[in-house]
Amino acid sequence: MRSTQPSFQVAIILASLLAASCGSSDSTGLTNAVPAPGGSGSGGDGGSSAEAGAGGIPAGATSGAGGAAEDPEPECAPMVAQLPDFPFELSTMAHPGQDYLNQLATDYVCGLGEGEEIDNSYFFYGYAPVTAFNQIIAGERNRLGEMRWVFHVSGYFGGLWLHGALNPTQQSGDPPSGWSAINAVNLAKEATDAVQGSDDKLFEYNKSSLQGFIFPSLKIASDFGYNKGYLLEIYESPPAGLSKPPDYVACGQLLWCDYADKRVPSLSTVKYVSKKLSESGGRWEDLRDGILPAGVESAQGTGDTMGRAVWGTFMQKDGLNQENYIQLLDVSASFLEVVQAAGLFSAKGYAEQDAEAGRTGALIQSGMAFWLASYMAAFPLGQGAEPDLPIIVPAP
Q1: Residue 378: Cβ within 10 Å count
Q2: Least crowded by CB within 10 Å, which of 41, 201, 259, 378?
Q3: Residue 200, class by beta-carbon neighbours within 10 Å (0-12 exposed, 13-18 middle, 19+ buried)?
Q4: Domain ranges (residues) in the chain
Q5: Residues facing residue 259 across a β-bridge
């Protein structure tokens, strides 16, 4: 197997580009978040915990089937998301949400079918962040700071997990000193300021966020293209000896892919936006000219090329086993669906002057900034084949 060392270099390069776009780090500095197994965490914004069924995944509470003479034991025992030490930069945009993450863990375990086992990778790198994004889309936005902390947790440990899956013999040490410069705070603040400002400011943000390239400013069309190419490359050409699930993903028009497992159900409500972007005039054409300028390769197409090129050049997939391969497909599809939602809601906001859609798109982006930046910071680190990763455990 060829050396995978260049993958660390490109991750650091991309992280540096992101850091350059974000400006200086938050003045509060870097701290270690070490949640106790049964810790109370932060009440955050004081909002309600995750609701049953959020994220399109049923919470799974069922009525007891026992006889009337016996009190059935509760079916949904509380769970705790047990986290190893990890770096966290406290800011006004994100704050610890251990209680919120514990509730997500409880809902996930509650929804498991009979005989199903806890899949920690699926929960921390897929279920938890996607459920939080689905709640944002549904208008549940009183715990945004805690949600961004969850995106940070997911991205950071997801980066360590992927490094271990791809490079099981590669070890590394502490996070590089440049970690705190990977500052998602400013990107999240830009999106939040647009949400809290005038409609005109919001719509201008929606437009500008779609146009341009993924680096250095995480523009959505290019980001979508990159993650689409990344996913399709590993799906269409799986590692030797591994099998791919049938009809897993198929992509078509601008900002659109279909998925066998629909993790973001609300995408169906904005599917028409992709068609409008591709064919209609007015503000749709205004957006399209930015995404597809005449005579210039589109930002989405360029991103697609970049995403495909990662495999076989900077990152080698031959180290994946079947289990990790399926998990990587799921994690990659989860991120792509969220980017897709950000793009479609933002496009709808600008083209239709729909403030609620515009706010939804912007707030998704504010969370994506934490999810992606934390992944990019953690991926180069490496802890061998068995990194110290979070798990779900019963509450004490």
Answers
A1: 28
A2: 201
A3: exposed
A4: 5-45+76-394
A5: 249
